[in-house]
Amino acid sequence: MAPKRKWDGNGTVEEDDSTLAQFIKPVYLVAEREDEQSSYSVFKIDADAGATPQRACTVARMPGTERGMSFVAACSKHGSWIVAVGGGPRAGTVIFDPSTSTTYRGPRLSEPKHEPVLISHRGEVYAISRRPRVAGRMDLDPWFECLSFNKGLPTREDCPGAGWASWIDLTPPPFFPSVLNPYQFRNPPEISVTSHVGIGTHVLISARQNELMLGTYAFHVVNKTWEKVHDKNLPFIGQAMPLGKGSLFAACPLSSNDAAGVSVFNIKVSLSTTAPLLLTIKEFPVVVASEGRIPRPLVCPLGMGRFCSVSLGPFRRSRRNANLLKKIQVILATFQTDNVLATCQSNGSEAKDLRVAAVQVKEENHTYKFKGRRSRLLESVTTSVLVAALSM
After folding, report:
1. What DSSP assignment string belongs to 144-159?
2. Which of 111, 141, 144, 185 could form a disulfide with 170 if both were Cys (CB 3.0 to 4.6 A apart)?
């Protein structure tokens, strides 16, 4: 039974703890596949399965998807969906409803974006160009857009009489190439977004220009304004996933020297009417019982203060095409973080970017198998076969 959900009126879904004791969110895996009609498939796995290898369930192919899309889980009081955005010049949006196994075509982006950074926060999906450009066919201004799910599914098929929701252009981050002189336009800066997280009324983003770290900026989702909150970048790679317990998030740490491939972060943004935002981050590297390390796994929250890391396990290559994988296994490790919250409360220092002792967590490993002709997945040079791990 899924947990009861309460809507707080500010675009945030809260889970009723009274039903969490016997519920762990299912995990949906998005994988790239060899298919002319759909570039991706959605699989469902039970994160609370036993030690015996389980079969991954194919939920659906996603027609209309194309290479170069990014995926995110969108939630509002109207439901939960898997959203695919970007790709090629079509600048498409594809929305999949797991509860009905129905795929919808959403509105087009104002500008095509290849593998955009997607942030789902407070009932809205934000799409920002991962590598903003000033020339060419992809990732041009507007670089930052938003699509709301707070009034329902933004498709004509779902609400034909409710109007047509569209992507809304937003002011890009200050470090994007919005204003360039002629020389800079001929030699534009190479900027790439490295990490992001949604917390409270803000979306935090860090980026780099070549080898130069540009710091961390906060976007206020209500006032639609940007503010620099730290000279350093966020200490993780990609997205930090909320764990549903206060200000705890899970992500892949920035440093490659850590003993674990995943860390828990305590992230707080202190608001003040008279002073700039104060960003406080404490990192808790996860110490696991199993040997070895999974380099940069996909991280997914499960509810109940749990999260999981997902990585590709053993597989066989197709005899006809070496880029096709058969009989794939996916390794999923679940973690329980009860003692992390206690450690956060006992280390109340307000120092920025504080590194504290690593914490031991409860760990369980599960193996899932992908078999059959329909499960042949594509492994390209630039893209991992597993694109996203989502829960809702």
Report:
1. EEEEE-TTS--STTT-
2. 144
